[in-house]
Each structure stands twice: as C-alpha cells, then as structure tokens.
C-alpha cells in the first residue's frame, strides 16, 4: 500500500495549508455581492450587528466607527482580505499576511460571532464562529512554524529566514 503521507515533507505540507488559506481569502473577496457591498450593504450590516451586540459598548464602538466611515471602510475590508489572500498564496510578506489575517478573523468573530439580541440580524452567528476559528488556528500555526520557508516569494528572496 502506498503511504501518501511520506510524499511530502512537513514544510511542504505547511506550504499547501498556507496556499489553501490564501486561496480561501481570495475566494472571500470574489464572492462579495459588488457593488451593493461597497455601497452600504457591509456598513448597514455592521451597524445592525453593533446595535444588537450582547456587549453594548463594544457594538456601539464598532458600529459607530464603520457608520462614520461607510464611504471607504468596505474598500479597506476588501483590500485587507485581498492582501492576506495574495500574501499567503504567493508566500509574499507571509508573517505580515498571517498577522493581518488573524486580526481580521478575530474582528469578524468579535462582532458577528456572538448571538445578537435580535436573532433575525444574524441567524448564522455560529457559522461565523466556525469559519473564523477554522482560519485563526491554522494561521496561528503557520505563523509559529515559519511556514513561509517553502514555495514562497519570501523564501526565494531569503526574507524572514
């Protein structure tokens, strides 16, 4: 019987996980319903989540910040996700991409991962928890193991080595 686990070295397996996560971030950018997302849909949802957050001061802070910056905040969100996706897929500035990815996921889970006061605002809050934790954990593992040493621009340029 062929042992497929012996085909890859550990660093190659980590590279595959890194690339897969990068592609997931890119998919996250591509599935957004443009132009509605940038014309208010994202900001309206965040404000609604903030108004219904079980920790009122936190919800008010985040919702207020996005509401005051609704003209450019959705673009910042998309740019962050795209930068993380490209960075992880290509292995370019990988430690920075991993830190930004973790930051984004922690923010998403902090706002959308709690049961809102009005469940109609976000019935899928538990899905938000699952998706974001399933991205935080491998991103943290990749950051701690130096997963940019194989199949990456960083390795080719001998950055972070």
Describe what is shown at a glance.
With 161 residues, this protein is an all-alpha fold. Helices cover 69% and strands 0% of the residues. The N and C termini lie far apart (37 Å).
Compute the separation of the termini in Å: 37 Å
**Largest sheet, described in full?**
none
Radius of gyration: 18 Å
Strand content is: under 5%
Share in helix = 55-70%
**Tally of individual domains:** 1
SSE pattern, N- to C-terminal: HHHHHHH
Number of helices: 7
Structural shape = elongated
- Unreliable stretches, pLDDT < 50, 5 or more residues? none
* Mean of all residue-level pLDDT scores: 94
Question: Structural class, judged by helices and strands?
Answer: mainly alpha
Number of strands: 0
Ordered list of secondary-structure elements with their pairings:
Blueprint: H1 10-30, H2 37-51, H3 56-68, H4 73-90, H5 94-112, H6 125-145, H7 153-156
Describe the structure in your own words.
This protein has one domain. The N and C termini lie far apart (37 Å). It has helices at 10-30, 37-51, 56-68, 73-90, 94-112, 125-145, 153-156. With 161 residues, the chain is mainly alpha-helical. The mean pLDDT is 94.
Features:
single chain, 161 residues, mainly alpha, 7 helices, elongated
